[in-house]
Design goal:
A 5-stranded antiparallel sheet has the order 4-5-10-6-7. Strands 11-12-13-14 form a 4-stranded antiparallel sheet, with helices on both faces. It folds into 3 domains: 46 residues, Uridine Diphospho-n-acetylenolpyruvylglucosamine Reductase, domain 2 (2-Layer Sandwich); 112 residues, Uridine Diphospho-n-acetylenolpyruvylglucosamine Reductase, domain 3 (2-Layer Sandwich), CATH 3.30.465.10; 94 residues, CO dehydrogenase flavoprotein, C-terminal domain (Enolase-like, domain 1), CATH 3.30.390.50. By secondary structure, it is an alpha+beta fold. It is built from 11 helices and 14 strands.
């Protein structure tokens, strides 16, 4: 590591003020991405603003048929929340699939969403559940938040404080994980609310998380895995790496989507 200024404010306002004054400041939430990249000298911020003392950014509450999760809420808290398990069990299941116990006990939902890793799990949940990302400045619909590889709609110094997820009628998440990192080679989150069906794919796209329009159209007509017969994902724009090529990821999108629909339907 190298020398940097460390600050630990106790409110969102103090945190954003610290970032505004820093030459090159970074927020530290769970540290599961920032600290390893700093150790590898892939990132060298002049100032670290540790958010861990900001209690206002923690917790889970139910409000007007939405679950609102504080940005500093850890993955294990989402995984084990009785309220989330009752209202959006698919979200709790997703949190339980992230990394290993050490990661789940330190990593935060806000940090994951802000980082927008192309193989992360939460971005798929945000898109499929039509979530709203709440910052210190505004509310951003998930469809407008994820812009590309590690890129979001967050402005310089803007801070995620909460994430609001509407209750779906049915939802499920299935992923094919890398056996070492537990990141998704392909993860698919399927959600149905009224006639609106959303299918979000993570781990596969070369430009990050995306919605699978053709799968959504088929499932809108009939929310059943049989409705997906003959529906295929294109390999265009999908990742090819040492773990899987684009054609295999395209195949996995179909497999994971069918499994997610069956799970959402209680099969």
């Amino acid at each position: 590591m190298y020398a940097f200024t460390y600050q630990r404010p106790d409110s969102p306002r103090k945190a954003t003020n610290a970032i505004e004054k820093a030459e090159d400041g970074k927020y530290l939430a769970g540290g599961q991405t920032l600290l390893p990249t700093m150790k590898q000298r892939l990132a060298s911020p002049s100032t670290i603003v540790d958010l861990s003392r900001i209690d206002a950014m923690r917790g889970i509450e139910m409000k007007a048929r939405n679950v609102i999760i504080g940005a500093l809420t850890r993955h294990v808290e989402v995984q084990t929340s009785p309220e989330i398990r009752e209202k959006i069990p698919a979200l709790a299941d997703l949190a339980g699939m992230i990394g290993d116990p050490a990661v789940r006990n330190k990593g935060t939902i806000g940090g994951s969403i802000a980082n927008n890793d192309p193989a992360a799990d939460y971005p798929a949940a945000c898109l499929a559940l039509n979530a709203t990302i709440i910052t210190n400045k505004r509310k951003i619909p998930a469809d407008e938040f994820f812009l590309g590889l590690f890129e979001t709609a967050l402005e310089e110094g803007e801070l995620i404080t909460k994430v609001s997820f509407p209750f779906p009628a049915k939802a499920a998440y299935m992923k094919f994980p890398n056996p070492a990192s537990r990141f998704a080679l392909v993860g698919v989150f399927v959600a149905k609310k009224g006639r609106d069906v959303r299918v979000a794919v993570t781990g596969a796209g070369s430009n990050g998380v995306f919605r699978a329009d053709n799968f959504e159209a088929a499932l809108t007509a009939k929310f059943h895995s049989k409705a997906l017969e003959g529906v295929k994902a294109s390999a265009d724009g999908l990742n090819t790496d040492i773990h899987a090529d684009a054609e295999y990821r395209a195949h996995l999108i179909g497999v994971m989507t069918r499994r997610a629909v069956d799970k959402a339907n209680g099969k």
